[in-house]
Design goal:
- It comes from Xiphophorus maculatus (Southern platyfish).
- By secondary structure, this protein is mostly beta strands.
- Helices cover 9% and strands 37% of the residues.
- The chain has a 6-stranded mixed sheet with strand order 2-10-9-4-5-6, with no helix packed on it.
- The longest helix is centred in the N-terminal third of the chain and has 13 residues, at 18-30.
- The protein is globular.
- The N and C termini lie far apart (66 Å).
Length: 142
C-alpha cells in the first residue's frame, strides 16, 4: 500500500508576497516550518526596552516558545505558548502574538539578560526544523 500526500494551498496572491507562497508550498511538501528571528544582533543600554521578533512560515497557533542561552549553559525557557512566563522568570519578560508573528519584549533590560535568544515552534510534531535563527543581545558602553 502506497501513501501519498496532496498539498492544497489557498492564498490570496494580492495580499501575499511570492516568498511567502514558496514558504507555504515548501512547508506543505516537507512539513518543515521556517522560523525567522529579527534582529540578528542588538546592542542595548541598561534599562532600555527591547523587542525581539519571530516569524513562522506557517501557522503555529500559540505554540511558540522563547529561550535564553548563556555561554556554557543549557537554554533556559523564558516564555511558553507565546505569552506564559515560565516560573521564576522576571516580569520584565513578556511574550505576545499568535498565528505566525510573535514578539518577546524585555522591559528594562538588565545586565544578566545578555545572551542568545531563540524562538521554538511546537505546533508540528516529528523531525522538523523547530528552532529559529538566534538573536544576540549585548550591552554597549553608554
Amino acid at each position: 500500500l502506497h501513501h501519498f500526500y496532496i498539498c492544497i494551498i489557498f492564498i490570496k496572491l494580492q495580499s501575499t508576497g511570492y516568498d511567502l507562497v514558496m514558504q507555504q508550498l515548501y512547508h506543505c511538501l516537507t512539513g518543515e516550518i521556517i522560523l525567522t528571528q529579527t534582529p540578528g544582533t542588538q546592542s542595548v543600554a541598561l534599562g532600555q526596552t527591547v523587542s525581539l521578533k519571530c516569524k513562522t512560515s506557517s501557522y503555529v497557533s500559540n505554540y511558540l516558545h522563547w529561550y535564553l542561552q548563556k555561554p556554557t549553559e543549557a537554554p533556559k525557557l523564558l516564555i511558553y505558548r507565546a505569552t506564559t512566563r515560565q516560573s521564576g522568570v522576571p516580569a520584565r519578560f513578556s511574550g505576545s502574538g499568535s498565528g505566525s508573528d510573535f514578539t518577546l519584549t524585555i522591559s528594562g533590560v538588565q545586565a544578566e539578560d545578555s545572551g542568545v535568544y531563540y524562538c521554538q515552534q511546537g505546533y508540528t510534531p516529528g523531525p522538523v526544523k523547530t528552532i529559529g535563527n538566534n538573536t544576540k543581545i549585548y550591552f554597549n558602553d553608554c
